[in-house]
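Researcher: We plan to redesign the surface later, but first we want a full-length starting point. Tokens attached.
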């Protein structure tokens, strides 16, 4: 009977898609792709790289799922500043896998526009340059905008935004008192890694963890959040559509 779910999935996917018609859908979805290592261990692999590689394959799939929705921007959290403190062999593996993901997205038939968001100076120059060259090839694409969060920390992003704002003001000869007046929410927003893009409407986190872990702290202030116990490598289109269906049934209050 193991073949039965495979036969039913397409019908269930179609049903979920129909349930979204005419309903509010997110324009910007942020995804915390968590649980790669745990998936590998529970699947019986002693080498956790299998989890990272399976998780990497899932990213292109997920972007393709957006074609049937109203989603225009996806931000996916792949490497945090905290992750950089892991065993150096694993960190190097992550660098290689993530750079391959960026290259794949830039060369595929998805037509997406790929951007890097994070404190990129924390990355090895060779890896950083490879990824930046790949993203430059997608600048004219008009598909889904895909922000790849790598070397990313939410607090660091806010620090970087404020520092960039102050440097810009100082370059114009702004006095300290005037500068203090110019530091406001809108000015900081204009210097974030995601400047020019809407804040995420929906944040999805896989693996059962129920926290933001520093992801888009500024931008996600009023985002809806959806958690699932499913590990990222096992995340399916029906899981994705369930998250969108749940979003469509919520009443957003924006802090009210």
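Model: Full-length starting sequence:
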């Amino acid at each position: 009977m193991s073949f039965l779910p495979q036969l039913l999935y397409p019908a269930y996917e179609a049903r979920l898609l129909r349930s979204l018609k005419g309903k509010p859908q997110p324009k910007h979805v942020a995804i915390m792709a968590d649980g790669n290592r745990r998936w590998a261990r529970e699947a019986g692999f002693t080498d956790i790289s299998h989890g990272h590689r399976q998780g990497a394959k899932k990213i292109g799939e997920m972007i393709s799922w957006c074609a049937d929705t109203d989603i225009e921007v996806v931000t996916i959290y792949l490497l945090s500043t905290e992750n950089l403190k892991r065993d150096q062999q694993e960190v190097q593996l992550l660098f290689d896998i993530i750079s391959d993901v960026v290259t794949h997205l830039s060369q595929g038939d998805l037509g997406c526009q790929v951007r890097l968001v994070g404190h990129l100076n924390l990355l090895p120059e060779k890896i950083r340059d490879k990824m930046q060259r790949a993203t430059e090839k997608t600048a004219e694409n008009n598909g889904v905008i895909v922000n790849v969060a790598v070397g990313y920390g939410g607090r660091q992003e806010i620090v970087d935004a404020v520092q960039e704002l102050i440097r810009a003001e100082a370059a114009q000869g702004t006095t300290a008192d005037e500068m203090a007046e110019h530091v406001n929410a809108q000015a900081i927003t204009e210097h974030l890694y995601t400047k020019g893009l809407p804040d995420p409407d929906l944040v999805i986190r896989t693996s059962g963890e129920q926290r933001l872990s520093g992801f888009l702290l500024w931008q996600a202030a009023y985002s809806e959040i959806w958690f699932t116990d499913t590990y990222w490598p096992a995340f399916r289109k029906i899981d994705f559509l369930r998250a969108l269906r749940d979003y469509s049934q919520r009443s957003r209050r924006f802090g009210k």
